[in-house]
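Run log // design_07
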């Protein structure tokens, strides 16, 4: 079968550009009502019945039957055996990627993840104590969609942060285990791993069962049921984000081989029919060259049908008046992945404010960031890069304020606090501060 992909051709010079642009970007992150209802029922059932409910849903959805949930736990010996069984080239690639991811997140921790304090003139100590979470859960897609890179990107920053226990859940439909995923769990130092997935796995991590321990935070990608479950358990546990379809935006000045850019657009389109791939470029001839590359290369791709549906449904090749305008539009989109494919990417980088990750230069393909560059590939989607950040060490830490007021400091701060507390009508607050004054005044009465 031959597939054809013709992304929408837009121009910022057109009077209808804004309307066409908004229509192309629109995607509803809301799960439909049926999914929400089914997920709510699963969460409630797991919360009530624990292991038994997880076993029932795992048998129903994954065709994986077991009499006890501990039979679905992967031992460290199994993870090590999987690592030793994969080809040497895969072992070396996995270890090299893991080391780069670890090095990046160790640098991140040094830059922003340390405790600090200082004393002011009267001896009062003020500061911040940074501590890791005790236990986190990572969700890893399984079955046909097996992502060992997701294991590295979720488990390694948790390790670097100092998390004591990392619980991995991964669906294995009909018992089919992906050796590279298990090997990645071994390399990344996952503490415990269970072959369960879906909303029931999220529920087990959030509430705890007789076998799967309750965690403090759940991270990692999943399908619509997993996303809906994470949304519902937020508050009981922390979550990383609610991820939408994958996105790539390429800013090109026409200097990069068009085949490279076409393949970069494919790299996200092959994820999902709802994935979005957009090119912004001021060179109309170059846009046409990229379209020709798309047509020539598409049917060489094993996932050509998915790529075609993604590009036809949500893709766009946008002609801009200038690279400056392209940067402005990029900031409106706030894409998950942003490639600056130009001769001088550092000229444009200062103009770019909102993106999950920025890939500078023609040789920096987004796929390198997905696997082995070092920075995390768990990124905000659907425009949320306007206010959120990539997964990192800071997601596995929490901060406690440190306050130690000296006797001299209490004389100054006490007067300030009491005055404000009386103003709020909270006499006990005020009096607690006043009693520490050298000469406590009578308590004032307020309405």
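design_07 sequence
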């Amino acid at each position: 079968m031959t597939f054809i992909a013709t992304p929408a051709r837009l121009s910022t010079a057109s009077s209808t550009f804004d309307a066409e642009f908004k229509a192309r970007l629109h995607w509803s992150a809301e799960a439909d009502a049926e999914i929400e209802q089914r997920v709510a029922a699963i969460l409630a059932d797991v919360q009530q019945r624990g292991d038994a409910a997880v076993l029932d849903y795992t048998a129903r959805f994954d065709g994986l039957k077991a009499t006890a949930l501990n039979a679905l736990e992967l031992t460290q010996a199994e993870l090590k055996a999987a690592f030793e069984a994969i080809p040497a080239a895969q072992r070396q690639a996995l270890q090299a990627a893991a080391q780069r991811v670890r090095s990046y997140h160790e640098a991140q921790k040094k830059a922003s993840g340390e405790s600090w304090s200082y004393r002011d003139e009267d001896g009062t100590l003020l500061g911040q104590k940074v501590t890791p979470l005790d236990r986190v859960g990572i969700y890893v897609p399984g079955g046909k969609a097996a992502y060992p890179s997701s294991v590295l990107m979720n488990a390694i920053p948790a390790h670097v942060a100092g998390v004591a226990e990392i619980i991995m859940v991964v669906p294995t439909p009909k018992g089919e285990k992906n050796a590279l995923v298990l090997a990645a769990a071994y390399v990344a130092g996952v503490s415990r791993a269970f072959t369960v997935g879906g909303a029931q796995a999220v529920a087990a991590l959030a509430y705890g069962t007789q076998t799967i321990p309750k965690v403090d935070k759940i991270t990692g990608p999943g399908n619509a049921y997993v996303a809906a479950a994470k949304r519902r358990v937020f508050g009981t546990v922390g979550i990383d984000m609610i991820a939408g379809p994958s996105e790539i935006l390429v800013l090109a000045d026409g200097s990069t081989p068009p085949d490279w850019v076409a393949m970069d657009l494919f790299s996200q389109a092959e994820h999902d029919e709802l994935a979005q791939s957009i090119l912004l470029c001021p060179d109309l001839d170059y846009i046409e060259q990229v379209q020709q590359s798309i047509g020539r290369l598409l049917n060489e791709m094993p996932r050509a049908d998915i790529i075609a549906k993604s590009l036809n449904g949500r893709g766009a090749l946008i002609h801009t008046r200038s690279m400056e305008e392209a940067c402005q539009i990029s900031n409106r989109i706030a894409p998950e992945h942003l490639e600056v494919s130009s001769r001088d990417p550092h000229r444009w980088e200062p103009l770019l404010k909102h993106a999950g990750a920025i890939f500078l230069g023609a040789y920096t393909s987004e796929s390198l960031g997905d696997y082995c560059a070092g920075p995390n590939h768990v990124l905000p989607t659907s425009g949320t890069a306007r206010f959120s950040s990539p997964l990192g060490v800071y997601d596995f830490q929490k901060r406690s304020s440190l306050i130690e007021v000296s006797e001299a400091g209490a004389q100054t701060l006490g007067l300030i606090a009491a005055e404000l507390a009386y103003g709020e009508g909270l006499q006990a607050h005020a009096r607690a501060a006043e009693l520490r004054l050298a000469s406590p005044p009578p308590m004032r009465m307020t309405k």
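The longest helix spans residues 88-112.
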